[in-house]
Description:
Blueprint: H1 2-30, H2 33-62, H3 69-74, H4 81-86, H5 92-113, H6 119-143, H7 167-196, H8 201-232, H9 243-268, H10 272-294, H11 308-332, H12 347-379, H13 387-404, H14 418-424, H15 426-442, H16 448-472, H17 479-487, H18 491-516, E1 518-524, E2 529-532, E3 535-546, E4 550-561, E5 564-576, E6 581-585, E7 587-591, E8 594-603, E9 609-616, H19 620-637, H20 640-644
Antiparallel strand pairs: 1-9, 2-3, 3-4, 4-5, 5-6, 7-8, 8-9
Helix pairs in contact: 1-2, 1-6, 2-5, 2-6, 5-6, 5-7, 6-7, 6-11, 7-8, 7-9, 7-10, 8-9, 8-19, 9-10, 9-12, 10-11, 12-13, 15-16, 16-17, 16-18, 18-19
Amino acid sequence: MIVELGHYALVLALATSLLQAALPLAGALRGDRALMEIGTIAAKATFLLVALSFCALTYAHVTSDFSVQNVWENSHSQIPLIYKYSGVWGNHEGSMLLWVLILTFFSALVALFGNNLPETLKANVLSIQAMITAAFALFILMTSNPFNRLLNAPGEGKDLNPVLQDIGLAIHPPLLYLGYVGFSVCFSFAIAALIEGRIDAAWARWVRPWALAAWTCLTAGIAMGSYWAYYELGWGGWWFWDPVENASFIPWLAGTALLHSALVMEKREALKIWTVLLAIMTFSMSLLGTFLVRSGVLTSVHAFATDPTRGVFILIILILFIGGALSLFALRAARLKAGGLFAPISREGALVLNNLILTTAAATVLTGTLYPLALEALTGAKISVGAPFFNMTFGLLMLPLLLAVPFGPLLAWKRGDLPGAAQRLFAAVAFGLVVGCVVYYAQNGGPILAALGIALGAYMILGSMMELFLRSGLGKVAAGVAWRRLSGLPRSVFGTALAHIGLGVTLIGIVAVTAFETEHIIEMKPGMTAEAGGYSLRFEGLRKGNGANYSEEVGHFIVSGDGVAMGDITSSKRIYTARRMPTTEAGIRTFGLSQLYVSLGDDMADGGIVVRVWWKPMILCIWGGALFMMAGGLVSLSDRRLRIGAPTRSKKPKPVLEPAQ
Length: 661
């Protein structure tokens, strides 16, 4: 009964979203406040209905109701409780329901906290959000219904895909979807503004918090997915330029450009047309990523195996929303004012450079991802575009951006002083060069490009702090005065610095692990040792073990340095009982920011086992930098100016002074 209630709630949510799509839009066109207010009520109701539907599916998974096809295909009575919960979205149907839940959640947030928006703008935004909701709700009900019943209920389920039975994959999809779907609000604001034909600095201020929240969540989702692939798949890599990885990275690049472009629009009322286009394209790339994952055109550890009907349905959604949005933009863009002027050397100019590079990088990744698919569709020829292409093209594109990042905050609006900014960055440049020299000599004249890459990261870290030093007057005024100035700065200034520092930290991690990691593939027997990263790894042997729904073979290793035991590492190979599917659980031990990574391979006839041992120097900087970026996004989001949004006219009457007697 609860499952049928969830199905019925989803049908009602579709009906409510259709009302929300039509009535507020009509009210905005006719100036009818009653019709526009329906949007607020309907957005909240739709969210509650979808939440009820999602809870019903979760209940079916937690109680192992195998009469529900979705539960039977993706769960098992013996799996731990947390994976019964994560199994709800560890499949195509459930993950699409999660998508719609987050979409309606953002719509409800606009309804709740959009009281400072003009009535017509709010109504149009909620209407566009409802159109997207209705399209995906219809997609679920027609092609991907998670509430289908089986006539003869089996006694046991097929089990959740073993590679998804991990805490990282319990967290990764919701974070990623919060980012993907969060950009729908920016998209809806852009379409609503085009309908009204009015775009100004207030519009940019309303859009920025939503873009910032979505970007922060998408950053967290990508970082979590990268770390999961690193420790769970047993191949020792953290990024493979997999097409589905690219599908999440492209919206991140476009969203980063949108954040910076909206800042220019808010401060200087410039780049209006470009900012609106970016808002459309960022969510369009999210929709494209959804199509790539759900259509069945890709083979990936991340992709869901789906039938062609689903791909065609999503392609239609793609054409309707992206094609419709770009058509509306083409019709309206010529009527919009371009905005203020500025000199090429200015803070606006630096942000324009940022946008050009980021959008070009996004287009490059998109081309490399789609070209093999297009070529196969047109000619039947199969090719692969792999890491060498992306590393070369993307790396070269990003180099000028990384050099320019510390300059932007030090340039004045409208017209800046480039030599003056360079002079202020002298200490950061010197610091970077010193770090680069230290790395070069520490590696006995190691790769010069690696030393330069780490020097660039160090320059970015210190350079990102320079605005804080200069605005506080640290070193030039008394410590108390400097502290008061520093604490009085807007939180967005600290958020910007943290995000840019995170970029530098991540760069150091990428360069260090790429240039200096070591890999050993050896056959080991009990008592044998291997050397990696200056540490000794002694193999103690294998032992059998069992988990809740798997059996495993665990390898035990003792790590020592300079003859002193420093701990142990366990790595295992698992066989999951229901699916008879093997997985590898890597053994990892952390030393500072570096890690020793051990993965078991095949058993040998002579009683040995193949062991892969990696030494990964500074690898934690990759995800540590992502944490800095996320912190920067959260700190910026807490800025009072972003929480309040554009000012509204006070509704309270001003007191009237009585005439003097």
